[in-house]
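Dear colleague,

Following up on Tuesday's group meeting, I ran the structure prediction for the two-component complex that the binding team flagged. I've pasted the input sequences exactly as they went in, so you can double-check that nothing got truncated or mislabelled along the way. The structure tokens for the whole assembly follow below. Feel free to forward this to whoever is handling the docking comparison.

Inputs:
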Amino acid sequence: MPGVLSERGDRQREGQMSDQAAGNPENQARLTDTEAGDLVQHYRERIEWDEVQWASHCIDCYPGNCPMRVYKKDGKIVREEQAAVFPTVQEGVPDMNPMGCQKGAGWGRMLKGKERVTHPLKRVGERGEGKWERISWNEATTIVADAMLDAIEEVGPESIIAPSGCNSPNRGNIMGMVGGLTMDLNAEMNDFAPGQYLTFGMFDPVSSVDDWFHSDVFVIWFSNPAYTRIPHNHYILEARYKGADVVTIAPDLSPSAVHSDYHVGLRPGTDAAFALSMCNVVVEEGLVDEQFVREQTDLGLLAFADEPGRFLRTSDLTDGGSDQQFYAWDTKTGQAVEAPRGTLFWGEVEPALEGVYTVEGKDGPITVTPVLALIRARLNDYDPESAAATTGTHADTIRLLARKIAAGRTNFLGSLGNAGKHYHGDLMERAQLLLLALTGNWGKQGSGVRAWTTVGLTFAPVGATSTAQMLDMIEAAQDAAIEADPTLTPAIFLVEASRQIGSTGMAFLPMVPPVFFWHRHCGYDEIWNNSDWHDRSMQRPFAEYWDEAVDKDWWAGVDYPRAEHTPRVLIECGGNVLRRTRGGSNVLLDTLWPKLKMVVTAEVRMSMTALYSDIVLPVAAQYEKLAFGIPSTHTMNLTFCDRIVEPPGEALHEGEVFRLLSEKVAIRARDRGMQPYTDALGTEHDLASQADNFPTRGALEDEEIQTDTRLRDGALAGTLPQDASLETIRERGYFRWEDLGIGARAQAQATDPKPNETFVPFRKHVEDGEPWPTLTRRAQFLIEHPWFVQADEHLPRHKEAPKSGGDYPFSVSSGHNRWSIHSLNITNNLMLETHRGEPHVVMNHEAAATLGVEDDDLVRLYNDQGEFFVRTKLSSGCHPDQVIMYNGWEPYQHKDWKGANDAEPGMIKWLHMAGGYGHLKYSVLQWQPCPVMRNTRVGIEKIADQ
Amino acid sequence: MNDTSPNKQLAWVVDLNKCIGCQTCSVACKVLWTDEDSEDNQWWCTVSTLPGRGTPRDWEQMGGGYDADGNLQPGKEPTPADYGGGFDLNYDEVLYGASDGKQHLAPQGSREDRWAMNWEEDQGAGEWPNAYFFYMPRLCNHCSRPACAEACPSGALQKTADGLVLRDENVCTGSRNCVAACPYKKIYFNPAKGISQQCIGCLPRLADGVAPACVRQCPGRAVFFGYLDEEGSPVNRLVREWEVALPLHPEYGTHPNVYYVPPRLPHPVKEDMSLDTENPRVPNEYLESLFGEKVHGALATLTAEMDRTKAGESSELMTTLIAYRFTELLGPFQTDPADIIATG
């Protein structure tokens, strides 16, 4: 039987385990007590199993990839347990075992939950009423296909919208087939790190979790790994035992902070000021790593001394000179010299980091100074005493931490793009990165900052011939580009190519930034036009910036849907827009939903979005299909989940769901005599002609072939072991990445993985001087875009958070909870038993007392955007100015079905609509505005129990 | 059965500086041993936030154990409400239209007196910015002098030669004397089966050389397991040599065999928000109330050794607590459960 790992007497232990499990039988324990024999037998009967298979959980759990084993008896799941089979990667670094968490340990229970969707359902009551009729797959796909074809004929294919979600294979195919619009995942999930993008030209550096162990200073900042990194948190605490200082910077004494050496309980939203103050100490005390700064950053490049936000360029010196050639002041020769674009290394040149100089410009003398000198002047505003007052901390703490960070390898754990969930998150990140840059803290083991990434595996199986052709094609294009411009690197070529793909709509991953959908069709134009909820330094109305960005074609090619593309069909899969969208389910339900003639959700469980759908399609969960974790450098492993049991009822693999739907669309198009049409991006679609072309193999057969092909593609591309196949991963359970692949995000890690070393990105920048994919080809702290200059954000600074939501006393903090992955496990009855079984908001007990609020009281949180009701959980660890609303709860777990997102305006920062400058250009998952919700203001009042 | 000194004593050492309260041990145990309907409120392994009332609620006020003279102390049996949990949720009404009004999904029934296994999660004590809390995993202590066994009228509980306290469910008459006698309140009465139940140390796994689920599945790598008397083993060194691992409430007199490395929280701050490196964040008296006077020595050792590695020196204690290889946590119970087939 495929996938059976273990049968009595004939199983060989996997080779990689021999060094750590019970290799030596003499060390094997056996109970000494013979009397216990009967009891052993008695209790063993409760847990007996006869079959074991590999598993992992929940692709939406990033980074996930925990190898588990599922134990079965008579074909039924008995239990699951972490496999704990990872070998030691680097001597002197703890191994990763036993990766897993409580959600994974109880996954089998979720499959049988009452919230599980098992049959295609058609709504028979009002949307949201929960009245359903079971229908057949044929009926369901016919209804949806007809609605899609009506939408195409009446409005156009751009009226078919797919919000992004994980685990939606083949949905991309059907969206491409009809010309619908898929919303960019990163803006939907709000996991973008805009400050990292502004500085690095990409947002996705990710070290492996075991690399954390190398840190001398580990700073938990914008994150709470005790909740969100359950399988990996031990590396932080083991680093602490090894001698690292663990620092948590957060308003609350978080569950992670209790295991730290230092807790900086700063005032919510003042993180940039705290970071810049540490920068001030590093600069003023002469602790700057000057060589690192000169090579890695633009801090040694010359800028105009008297004009804010302007680099010196050749075009300032000679008519017709390049506007992409920048300069430094060579202290050895006393003159301005060209900054090399093809390398970060300066050779004999020693760029000045301070001083004011004069160069002869084409229109007369120009006074110039290194960017660091400009920054240093700004840092005067953040001396430790002033910053301590701003942040509510102490100057001595700022000095102490700054010195520690300068002295050791420092790692900032900002899980995913959490700073980016603040309105001024870009400023917070730029301040953090400035501190890392000044102290030489990236591209070395134990150092750096992180976001999230995907590497290695192609998301669609293409087969050996196509893989080889694709690799050849990319290599040829790369070689041609580098021959034309020798300063290019393969990584920069790929990053820049991905920006082109984003703008021409030619993508095999066709996504558009959802900001246009939200603004034009979901009611966000009104919210975003509220100047009171923006930063006060926004000088013009938001609408003017919006119009300028659109009129100047900064988003040309991806600024869809247009106003005339009224949404008609929404296809949700692997996501839950009514739970997660900032701005709230009510905004979507009031504005968007009435326009939609068809809402279809493919789901494993009855989510809020499924409840408000017209058709619900049941899909298989992990254990019921072949699956992998998200391929990432976070664990450096690709973990496999086998098909362990059959899906319940009529549930199908998502790939099969969308294959069936695609086929039905073609058949119904043929039946209605539909003519070919062209979408807004110019692509022609002839649906009717595809009616007879669909593969007819069964889901399981397809699934096995597709999975095998994907793995073999990986082997061909060099990312997986040469013998990678479905058969070999069924033996081993996981593969360690051998290479990261040719994707832009993989190349932007700028490190070749090594089998016996923890992974840290940016090594090629530091060790080989490879340039960065930014305008200046260096990590860039000066952003010259006129909007940034106007906002005085061309260089890092701190700004107070605007009072989004209105002038109310409490600031809302948020973050992932401990008990679920997004909303996936949040209604699971086993997980509900591990807390209070319903949503809660964390409040400081003294702040609550002033409102007459006690623990477990029902309260109303309200502002000018909306309201929601929730129970309190009082904690003295909560900052008195903040309330913490961990996310993931379904709105229908709250009274009146209003979730926390109903009080989140979902503002976007106007500067993030900027384009037409250097690397500020959309590509999939990269530069784009993302709605924020941290520091939303709310009032709180106690509500009498019903 | 009186104060049996087994030839060998199995012991758990939980490092409270590595426990992150994730409940993986609780869930691992739950799905393995108490997955039946009648066992809804049974969590043989639980993690609570301290300070707090714990689970079952206010268990430390329920008596049991021995007095200073070694006499059994009367104990109280927790009520179902003290255990709490076992939530009844209105899935049908919310998701499948079984009600006319708009109900929200939540545990049904009275809120009065509501409790759950982890009700006080992350609440703690103290005042911001000097609040404090930490996580306390608890399971049967497999005591060297088990009050439950002494109180059992039918001889259903035995102390095995490996030091486990085991119940013979066929002998148990459901007197519940054990429930009252256990000062840790880690015994659960099952009305449907008419017997009491408690942690069995994953006996059949041990018999096959596999470490208990709560140990082997701890993603925090916070739990060490093994024979207390095995020279050089992590549990032996942590408990006996370095004396940094201590039993909970030694004054209960049962000589528990689950030991805890006490927590070291971040430095507190003074009124002006400057660091206070002189005083601990968790009041010493509080830790003493949990672990007895020896906690001061344990913390002093821990602090000194952590300071050594911060100064760049090496420390055997720190190396042990790091557990470079996961298998170091498992003692001699190294077998991978996938390598055995457990058939009845």
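Chain B has two domains: 10-80+119-339, 85-114.

Cheers,
M.
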